[in-house]
Specification:
It is a single chain. The chain is mostly helical. It has one domain. It is built from seven helices and four strands. The protein starts with 11 loop residues before the first strand and ends with a helix. The relative contact order is 0.14.
Length: 240
């Protein structure tokens, strides 16, 4: 019960196999489903009235919209606005996924590298395919910037390609590591509370502070993930 890593164990809720493939519905699957459901519910409820003078809920949703739109304008430019739905969807999925994991007894699927890498590889493939569609073979010029002496290309091109191919890894590891570390720390201090019993006022206070800190980290990591997505999108569109 006090094992801080026990919270990351994936457990089947409804187990079944198809052709030898395990397709069980797990606690991680439930968290993903709840994330999608929560996004739909929040936006449906908050935008149901669409008042000219928004209430707090509508204003919060509109602020989220403006935040992501501002990130696209600042990092990509006007040409990036047509890809707003994709960037906005990525931001909401990561944000709500992080926040759902803070609900007591819920599972934090963003603390698993396979989940964060899946989101990162979707972003990577989307941006790569977009760059090829927009520029064709000229997309390869991304790995050989203009103005670089030709004798440096044999060194620069492999370095640029490795840097490009590691983008989904850096996106995935950054999100996974921050979420896993924060939840592990919270569980450790929760274990101190259980160990000392009625004298656990100090650990409780620390855990309350850590919970608030984790909310900030959850929002910040979604923000960073979205900024990097915009930066990579800018490269695909403008070949910078």
């Amino acid at each position: 019960m006090l094992d801080p890593l026990h919270q990351f164990v994936i457990s089947p809720i409804f187990g079944f196999r198809v052709g030898g493939v395990d397709l069980s519905f797990t606690n991680s699957s439930l968290a993903v489903f709840m994330t999608f459901a929560l996004i739909c519910i929040v936006f449906t409820v908050c935008l149901s009235s669409k008042k000219l003078i928004p209430n707090r809920a509508q204003a919060l949703v509109e602020m989220t919209y403006v935040l992501v739109a501002g990130l696209i304008d600042a990092n990509v430019g006007k040409k990036g606005r047509r890809y707003f739905p994709f960037v906005f969807s990525v931001f909401l999925f990561v944000l709500f996924g992080n926040l759902v994991g803070l609900i007591p007894y819920m599972f934090t699927f963003t603390s698993h590298i396979i989940a964060t890498f899946t989101v990162a590889i979707i972003v990577f493939l989307f941006i790569t395919i977009l760059g090829i569609v927009l520029h064709g073979f000229d997309f390869l010029s991304l790995f050989a910037p203009k103005g670089v002496p030709k004798f440096l290309l044999p060194i620069l091109v492999p370095v640029e390609m490795i840097s490009y191919l590691t983008r989904p890894v850096s996106l995935a590891v950054r999100l996974f590591a921050n979420m896993m570390a924060g939840h592990t720390m919270m569980k450790v201090f929760a274990g101190f509370v259980a160990m000392v019993g009625v004298y656990g006022i100090a650990p409780i206070a620390v855990n309350v502070i850590l919970t608030g800190f984790e909310v900030i980290v959850a929002i910040l990591q979604a923000y960073i993930f979205t900024i990097l997505t915009c930066v990579y999108l800018n490269d695909a569109i403008h070949l910078h």
